[in-house]
Specification:
Blueprint: H1 5-13, E1 16-19, H2 27-43, E2 47-53, H3 71-102, E3 105-111, E4 121-124, E5 152-154, H4 166-176, E6 182-184, H5 187-197, E7 202-204, H6 214-218, E8 230-234, H7 239-248, E9 254-258, E10 269-272, H8 277-285, E11 289-292, H9 295-303, E12 307-310, H10 317-326, H11 345-367
Parallel strand pairs: 1-2, 1-4, 2-3, 4-5, 6-7, 8-9, 8-11, 9-10, 11-12
Length: about 375
């Protein structure tokens, strides 16, 4: 496509707003929004993340919690709260430092409602912005206050589920038919949206973290946190399975676990507490192997070309399977005997380049 000077100036003068789950104290949420913002600023014009805290996230990450059911529980919870306060404060500071020092955020912070129309273009997503059971059917991610539908676009938005309830179907169909461009992160999600809208408008696009390459993400890593070789565990629900896999691997490797607890879950495992986004990246980059049931734990292992094992649990299968299938890494899903071979990342990285190119073409169609 040939652009005139006037077209380029107009594109660069456009103000782009990203509406996503950036307020979550979650590594994937913060890093994917950062990556998308950085990519759009590099190629398409001034972009900022709308500093929006949806209703379901207000008060979701308390630093200090007390149980007031009875005096005994109150005293016990007070002791625990005081014990963990320094760790949680350190983690909160690290998240906020990364958000506001490394990314571009709107000057105004919005709670519960984003009711302004101050951008030339909007990108909704990535992350599970259309997982309506998760967001408690929050309609703000459909930009109901933006009347010009040509401004509304999504990028790699996720439904987060493999089946939709009836209320989700109604809301998705009602609002998404008014969007200018729609891209969804998972193949399964694309199929569901296209079925709802009775056309093939939704395109599958990669998670925003893949828009920037390994070299870029290495520049965002914090210092190395462990001097010996180690396996990294990052899990929400499958610690026992992770430890079983560790025991099948090289017994000489240390085992690090991203977890704030003071108690050790296993004599072999060392808890790494108060981890922020930079530390999270560093822990993955410097690991010999990563064992995780987190999508972004798996995704950053791929970015850094680290061997990994992905554990599925009900409700999250599609986002793991769709990505690993596209990268020919299905064997890294834990379902029986584990694949002990090292990953051939030369082939995987070629697939990632193809994904980036596809995403670039999608954004070109929106902004050029």
């Amino acid at each position: 496509m040939h652009l005139r000077i006037g077209d380029i100036k107009q594109m660069q003068n456009e103000k782009i707003g990203i509406l996503t789950l950036s307020s979550a104290e979650n590594y994937g949420a913060v890093l994917q929004s950062h990556s998308l913002c950085k990519f759009l600023n590099d190629y398409y014009g001034y972009t900022e993340i709308i500093d929006f805290v949806p209703d379901f996230m207000v008060g979701r990450y308390p630093i200090f919690w007390l149980n007031k059911e009875n005096p005994y529980k109150f005293l016990k919870s007070l002791i625990i709260a005081l014990l963990y306060l320094p760790i949680l404060l350190k983690k909160r500071k690290r998240f906020n430092d990364f958000r506001y020092k490394e990314s571009v955020y709107s000057q105004k912070k919005y709670y519960r409602v984003f009711d302004e129309d101050i951008y030339d273009k909007y990108i909704v997503g990535s992350d599970q912005v259309f997982n309506l059971e998760l967001t408690r059917y929050d309609e703000e991610f459909f930009l109901p206050h933006v009347k010009d539908n040509s401004k509304k676009n999504t990028y790699a938005a996720s439904l987060g589920v493999t089946q939709l309830d009836n209320k989700s179907r109604i809301l998705l169909e009602k609002y998404l038919k008014n969007f200018n461009s729609i891209s969804i992160r998972e193949k399964t999600g694309c199929e569901m949206i296209n079925s709802l809208l009775n056309n093939h408008v939704a395109q599958q696009m990669c998670d925003p973290i893949f828009l920037n390459d390994k070299k870029y993400w290495e520049s965002k890593c914090g210092r190395k946190l462990h001097n010996k070789k180690y396996v990294l565990i990052y899990t929400f629900k499958n610690l026992g399975t992770c430890i079983d896999i560790c025991n099948m691997l090289n017994q000489n490797l240390d085992v690090l676990y991203i977890n704030n607890d003071f108690r050790k879950c296993n004599p072999r495992v060392k808890n790494i507490r108060g981890v922020g986004p930079r530390e999270f990246l560093s822990l993955i980059k410097n690991a010999e192997c990563v064992i995780t049931d987190s999508f972004h734990g798996m995704a950053f292992s791929i970015v850094f070309n680290i061997d990994f094992y992905a554990i599925l649990y009900p409700g999250t299968e599609s986002r793991f399977k769709d990505l690993l299938n596209a990268l020919e890494l299905d064997s890294r899903i834990v379902c029986g005997p584990i694949d002990m071979n090292r990953i051939d990342y030369s082939r995987v990285n070629k697939h990632l380049e193809t994904m980036r190119y596809k995403s670039k073409k999608y954004f070109d169609s929106i902004f050029m």
